[in-house]
Amino acid sequence: MTFFVSHSGKASKVAIILILLSLGLIANPSPAKAWYYCGTSDARCYGINEWPGLQHGGYTNLSIVQMSSTNIINNTIWNIRTSGRFAWIEVGEIFIGGELWYYWEYELDPNPRIGVRLLTRVPPGDIGQIAFMGTILNTPNWSFSSCGISTWIAGISVPSSGYDVNICVPLYGFSPDYLTIGQELQGSSDTPTNAPIASFTRNKYADLGSNQLYDQFGIAPGEPRSISVPQGSPPYGYWYTLPQPFQTSGDFRTYCCA
Fold it and tell me: Among 113, 118, 174, 235, which residue's beta carbon has the most beta carbons within 10 A?
């Protein structure tokens, strides 16, 4: 069953640097340096956009790009809870161990983090194509028969290659307070890391009562709003096209270190 097609419409904050290049319209971003520094080998830097507020899932169309790094870099969408029991669930593309993969990951504190779960290598034909991906809380309204009620689902569907997967994730009682899209970079390096510009479009959030996915800045009342985070070192994230009420969910873009 394909969840992410044809809809109408993380780690602890300690040692995390949240980065946005801009919330304005930037057609030609300045090139980044080939080096970066995120602290220790396990620290992370981000180029992201966050929508705060109670979340029950989210969705994006990600343009797949060929990334490379001596460490780890990914383009992803994730739901995160920062209050109470820290937890998150994410899905996206990741360059790790010298290869580009589709992946998912989750954590529910205080249980041990399960780490990155690699799904399949990204085939060359998917580069430059669109992947439909997201996460959602399974309820009777959505009713994914293959997953239990109150589990979370991480899904990726790539029409160009026919890859289509939904993963049942036992995050019972998980009520995230942020929905995030963007790029994550891990560790530090004095050798080049490259991630060409990737686009996040059709950005949506799940409304469980109406069984709909709504555009961010779209038609649903009480929807989450984006927040800006400080500019800084790579990676970079920026709005190429800003979301507009009743019109579009925008075009958010990331890149790193070219």
Answer: 235
pLDDT > 90: what percent of the chain? 28
Q: Which amino acid is at 233?
A: S
Q: Which tokens go with 68?
A: 């490379």
CATH code for the domain in which residue 52 is found: 2.60.120.200
**For residue 119, what are the CA distances in angstroms to 44, 133, 185?**
22, 13, 20
User: Rounded CA gap, 143 and 140, in Å?
Assistant: 5
- Residue 149, classed as helix, strand or coil, is coil
> Does 7 reside within a domain?
no
- Look at residues 84, 133, 125 and name the one whose alpha carbon lies nearest to residue 105: 133
Total count of domains within the chain: 1
Among 219, 228, 230, smallest CA distance to 252 is for: 228
- Residue 223 three-state SS: coil
Per-residue pLDDT tens over the stretch 174-193: 888 888 899 988 866 655 67
User: How far is it, in rounded angstroms, from Cα 204 to Cα 144?
Assistant: 19
- Contact between 204 and 7 (Cβ < 8 Å): yes
Residue 3 lies in a domain: no
pLDDT for position 31: 33
The SS3 assignment for 177 reads: coil
